[in-house]
Specification:
about 575 residues, alpha/beta, Rossmann fold, Domain 2, N(10)-formyltetrahydrofolate synthetase, Formyltetrahydrofolate synthetase, domain 3, twelve-stranded mixed beta sheet, four-stranded mixed beta sheet
């Protein structure tokens, strides 16, 4: 008997893995042909997406369901847990269902948050493989990203040391790269704050070009964004060639194509473009593809995974990062625009705990015990924090999609607190379900699954927040004012200069801001009023096809805390099993 009240998540996952389906059983139940499964051992594998999509091109798509959340506490509100629970709940209703979630980053896995497989009786398994590299997609992205940096830095060295005549003998064209205007950094999939800013090229003239550089976490790499939005290998190949790594001394972009490294980078990604096949604790198939961090990246499960799953199932549940202001907004205006897929509903995960925090509750700090305000009944805090939930409902409803609020139930929640949320959400036009999937698995998610099935019967009038031809400044203003609730937008001089250069660009708009507030300031909880969104920089992700406005003080390389998860992870040397993941 698996009991979340007495067992840790990794213990549940380990016990469940002993009786899980083989990857061959999963493939057979999905109706796949033998050649379409690329097994990695007995419990997981990759899917040959091109072969499957070619074979099923005329098959109608299933229902398309997106999962997002309210603005979370630093602990997270169980979005992946809810995604797993909903998949399992739909399974209990006899539906043929699939899910798509993002691969966890080594940064959070070994830091405070831990892995991202769900929790309790609503998890993706096997947990160890899921958390520790899976089939190597993130390693492939790290290597492809760093290969671009190798190409850039070696070219800088050669152009500095050699004349035009010598370069011509070496069949190199002088790119005249400006070392003060390099837009890429190195990548590593850990939270390594000491590497945010570094000096490279120390030593003699053959030891590289002396310059400032730095590291970003791999999942924030533009290559991860490309993996998330590419429709196929040909699309990925073209996007890889458009990555801007630096600018020359005339201010013109220098791309991976200019460095002649785009082909080799794509070669490193050939296997990674195939989605990974895993399963829930209750045996429903889950595709794992692309990565997290919707605050500093696109933060979506991949378009390829969704296209594939919609051909294989009657209901497909896909996950977006963080709250509806970030993850859903990017799903809505970027991913759906690029994929051409029309979703049927969006699920907003909500907890009593999060609303209490937004209502003025004590600070929530990872690694510290929760204040009793979060475990004891406090209707006033819940009511005061309701504005945050209502803001997210309004965001989803602007898209024309039905919104379903999932109250992710904790055992400390009182019935009065739950009913307050239900009443307010229903009055705002959302469907509502209380789900106990963490404690009861799919059986505890029946109400949620039934509510989602009912929402999918509605005919959505899906519409984007802005038209593709909308000028960039107007797009940023629309997101800031109609999604975040800002009164306006301000720009630093540097950001204003870049805005002018990109004003008429039809590239997508991928905002970077904190996930801990509707605003740019993580300390502003609830639904902040009377504030302006400050844009301090605008980045160009030419390969992904994004303009990236950066709001507030946010970094592309997180830091490791004083009590990280890696302190508690170990291996049973007798069995080889990893223990302590969470």
């Amino acid at each position: 008997m698996l009991d979340p009240t007495t067992m840790k998540d990794w213990e549940i996952a380990e016990a469940a893995s002993e009786r899980m389906k083989t990857v061959y059983q999963l493939a057979e139940e999905l109706g796949l042909e033998n050649r379409e499964l690329l097994p990695y051992g007995h419990s997981l594998g990759k899917l040959d997406y091109m072969s499957i999509l070619r074979r099923l091109k005329d098959k109608p798509n299933g229902k398309y369901i997106e999962v997002t959340a309210v603005t979370p506490t630093p602990l997270g509100e169980g979005k992946t847990t809810t995604t797993m629970g909903l998949i399992q709940g739909l399974g209990k209703l006899g539906k043929k269902v699939t899910g798509a979630i993002r691969q966890p980053s080594g940064g959070p896995t070994f830091n405070i948050k831990g892995s991202a497989a769900g929790g309790g009786l609503a998890q993706c398994i096997p947990l160890t493989d899921f958390s520790l590299g899976l089939t190597g997609d993130i390693d492939a992205i790290t290597n492809a990203h760093n290969l671009a940096m190798v190409a850039l830095t070696s070219r800088l060295q050669h152009e500095f040391n050699y004349s035009d005549a010598v370069l011509a003998q070496k069949k190199l064209k002088r790119l005249d790269i400006d070392p003060r205007n390099v837009t890429m950094s190195w990548a590593m999939d850990f939270s390594a704050q000491a590497l945010r800013e570094i000096m490279i090229g120390l030593g003699g003239k053959m030891d590289g070009f002396l310059m400032k550089s730095g590291f970003q976490i791999t999942v924030s790499s533009e290559i991860m964004a490309i993996l998330a939005v590419a429709r196929d290998l040909a699309d990925l190949r073209e996007r890889m060639a458009r990555i801007v790594v630096a600018y020359d001394k005339k201010g013109q972009p220098v791309t991976t194509r200019d460095l002649e490294v785009d082909g080799a980078m794509t070669a490193l990604m050939v296997k990674a473009i195939n989605p990974n096949l895993m399963q829930t604790i209750e045996g429903q198939p889950v595709l794992v593809h692309a990565g997290p961090f919707a605050n500093i990246a696109v933060g979506q499960s991949s378009i390829i995974a969704d296209r594939l799953a919609l051909k294989l199932a009657d209901y497909h549940v896909t996950e977006s990062g963080f709250g509806a202001d970030i993850g859903f907004e990017k799903f809505w205006n970027l991913k759906c625009r690029l994929s051409g897929l029309t979703p049927h509903c969006s699920v907003i995960v909500c907890t009593v705990r999060a609303l209490k925090m937004h209502g003025g509750g004590p600070r929530v700090v990872p690694g510290r015990p929760l204040d009793p305000a979060y475990t004891e009944k406090n209707n006033a805090l819940v009511e005061a924090g309701m504005e945050n939930l209502l803001a997210h409902i309004e965001t989803v409803r602007q898209s024309g999609l039905p919104a379903v609020v999932c109250i992710n139930h904790f055992h400390t929640d009182s019935e009065e607190e739950v009913e307050l949320i239900r009443t307010a959400a229903e009055a705002a036009g959302a469907g509502v379900a209380v789900s106990r999937h963490w404690l009861q698995g799919g059986e505890g998610a029946r109400e949620l699954a039934e509510t989602v099935v009912e929402a999918c019967r509605q005919k959505p009038t899906f519409r984007f927040l802005y038209e593709e031809a909308t000028p960039l400044e107007e797009r940023i203003a629309a997101i800031a004012e109609r999604v975040y609730g800002a009164e306006g937008v301000s720009y630093t001089p540097a950001a204003r200069e870049k805005l002018a250069a990109l004003e008429t660009s039809r590239l997508g708009t991928c905002m970077v801001k904190t996930h801990l507030s509707l605003s740019h300031d993580p300390h502003l909880k609830g639904r902040p009023r009377n504030w302006t969104l400050p844009i301090r920089d605008i980045l160009l992700y030419g390969g992904a096809g994004f303009v990236v406005p950066v709001a507030g003080d946010i970094k592309l390389m997180p830091g490791t805390a004083s009590d990280p998860a890696f302190r508690h992870i170990d291996v049973d040397t007798g069995s080889g099993r990893v223990r302590g993941l969470f």
